[in-house]
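Lab manual, section 2.4: Encoding a predicted structure.

Procedure: take the sequence of the chain (432 residues), apply the prediction step described in section 2.3, and record the output as structure tokens. A sample record is shown.
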Amino acid sequence: MQKNTIDIINLGCSKNLVDSEILSRQLEAQGYKVVHDPQDPKGSIVIINTCGFIGDAKEESINTILQFGELRRKHKIERLLVMGCLSGRYIKELPTEIQEVDRYYGKFNWKEILTDLGQSYDPKLSLERTLTTPSHYAYLKISEGCNRFCSYCAIPIITGRHQSRPIEDLEAEVKWLVSQGVKEFQVIAQDLSYYGMDLYHSLKLAELVERLSDIKGVEWLRLHYAYPAQFPFDVLRVMRERDNVCKYIDIAFQHISDNVLEKMHRHVTSKETYELIGRIREEVPGVHVRTTLLTGHPGETEDDFNQLMEFVQKARFERMGAFPYSEEEGTYSAEHYKDDIPFEVKQERVDRIMEAQEEISREINQQKVGKVMKVIIDREESDFFVGRTQFDSPEVDPEVLISKNKDLKIGEFYPILITGAEDYDLYGELKD
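Recorded output:
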């Protein structure tokens, strides 16, 4: 155990990661050394940033707290602090259930950690953070919360109503990150589509992206987690016209059956969904659409699922994930519907969807063989340099495996000739 060293264990989504990075910067400014390796904790103080979204994530958070709680009980660490979505959601229950934790914090009062350590929050560093990602890319969180209240989703319960960050603050943050060597930005929110409505009384995503893309040094901007209802169509023009705005959009459609969409409170119809996808592809040629689908929502019939399978085949998403429904207490689904579909059926439906998607992904990848694509290098492995195209977000999307016949630098862009394709990953070599 090293004195003046703090382990921050980050669980959950990229939005949580940003919070951990901001906290890290504040702690380092106070003289602490901050590390982030849950497998090899070194500090006398451990801070766990938890996720409380769905069952599996909650279980991981609980197990991590118990693991470090045991170290705290054996005096192998001096203090254990827990923050984030899970602790915020169960702030009354957790202190009783797991007493080895010195203090629990919510998602938004993490500044109190500094106070409890005898320090104070420095507002001059509010737009700065210590990156835990490779130094050439960063996540940019443009809002918190959500106003949609989908039947199955606990996010509004955990994070509250949508709160957009001012455009000027985001511009300043991007400029600072660029000065630190960041070239690629993953623009994230629970709901990109709603950005600006609460702050400016109109949808402002297009203006935000346009202004961020004007900043010198911004090579790529990539958009994550739009909502299909009230989609801000003007962002498509920006995506089409700006070379540094990736031809990539992440929209969680969840389902296509009108029966299920209504039960989910998605405020969109099957017809509107197909029209939206068509318009995106028409206005942004070559765009890659990422989506998430949900199987086994209460009331989903075999016919509903067959419509979902047909949707996957027709839409031919370039990127897709699928998950089984998980009942979350406090949500509309938990309080008004019976979780009437066995988990085995939910999972079998996920497997069938992903099997279909695998074939689609393979066919799309095969079309890229012989093309030269702009690729950023993320890391070096024993046999390959590993990079991504504008169509690939870190951690979740396929990668490009590049032969090591020439030396490439991490964080730099190169023209890569695609020489081969698998179901998801591509192979390539540096074009002379």
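Check your result against the sample. The radius of gyration is 22 Å.
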